[in-house]
Amino acid sequence: MTFNEGLQIDPDRASSGGPGMGGKLALGGGAGGLILLVITLLLGGDPGSVLGQFTGAQDTQQTQPGTAGTPEHCKTGADANKYVDCRVVLTAQSLDAVWASELPKQTGERYVEPELVLFSGAVATGCGNATSAVGPFYCPADQTAYFDVRFFQELTDRFGSSGGPLAQEYVVAHEIGHHIQNQLGDIGRAQRDPRGPESGAVRTELQADCYAGIWAHYADKTPAPGGDRPFLQRLSDTDINDALSAASAVGDDRIQRAAQGRVNPEAWTHGSSDQRQKWFLTGYRTGLVRACDTYSAPDLDNPPALR
User: Per the annotation, which location comes first and is thus the protein's main one (predicted)?
Assistant: First the structure.
């Protein structure tokens, strides 16, 4: 999968930190805390209730998101095909185009673009202080998606995901999926019911996977603003398998098995590998927001749209 090379990357779509971002950030819990952050917050959700447990109030140098805008080397679709940070920004632009069209059409809600921050090391957010150990996340308090792009190599090396572009773009689409939940008033359900195989947290994460699938359904069809060419060239089966690989890599059962040699569904916050793949496919195959109603689904292992 590739972006159409002549597309222009918006120089103002992202905020990015320059050299020196990511200063000291005091963490509680040591390495164990970092592992818990990765497992708990990997690929999204509302980090506010968790970040505060690991960000120390003493001797903490908060780093604010930079104001430099999109990285200077990110100009066109060709750059997005070459550089991961450019790919994140152009994926966000593609998501903006898809959701600006589909959200009002399907729900009557006008799409509001979330902020996008690229950071390195550590960042201060409306949900608290965070380090790269958290992985990509969305903060409802400031309506911003945060990415340290070095995570994508970790996703491949540590978690065994495919390194294909759509694996990375799935992550971006998942985080913007949380923004859609925020707009529709659903994201708070995760905090009210924070863990377990049928929990609100799991249903919230699986819905964000489904919303990522909706983006993939339209991404190679929705024209970029000011032209008639879509952002992405036509998606192939290989592309979709890359996204499914990433979804599987961060399933709760797979992470638990790798970390502790056993699976404990009562501690799940994101859903199993199989569930994450199935709900992504639900969005991809239907393109329908109503098909992503995980909160009403009686069986998260069998999305109604896939039966």
Answer: membrane
Tokens of 286: 């239907």
> Taking residues 177-205, what's their average pLDDT?
91
Q: Is residue 8 part of a domain?
A: no
Q: Which residues pair with 37 in a beta bridge?
A: none
Q: What is the Cα 298 distance to its own chain's centre?
A: 25
The amino acid that residue 193 corresponds to is D
Which domain covers residue 287, as residue numbers? 15-19+30-306
What does the alpha-carbon distance between residue 137 and residue 182 come to, in Å, rounded to a whole number? 13
Strands 122-125 and 128-131: antiparallel
Beta-bridge mates of residue 144: 115, 139
pLDDT digits (tens, 9 = 90+) for 245-277: 999 988 888 888 888 889 999 989 899 999 999
* Confidence tier at 23 by pLDDT (50, 70, 90): very low
CA atoms of 53 and 76, how far apart (whole Å): 40
Query: CA 287, 280, 146 angle in degrees (round to 5)?
Result: 100
DSSP string, 21-58: -S----BSSHHHHHHHHHHHHTT-S-THHHHHHHB-SS
For residue 5, being part of any structural domain is answered with no
The answer to whether the CB of 183 falls within 8 A of the CB of 112 is: yes
Conformational region of residue 152, where left means phi above 0, alpha means psi within -120 to 50, and beta covers everything else: alpha
Q: Which two tokens stand for residue 45?
A: 């959700």
Domains identified in the chain, total number: 1
Any domain includes 224: yes
In a domain, 4, yes or no: no
Rounded-to-integer distance, Cα 131 and Cα 154, Å = 14
Structure confidence by residue, pLDDT tens digits, 129-140: 888 878 888 999
pTM: 0.86
- CA atoms of 60 and 152, how far apart (whole Å): 27
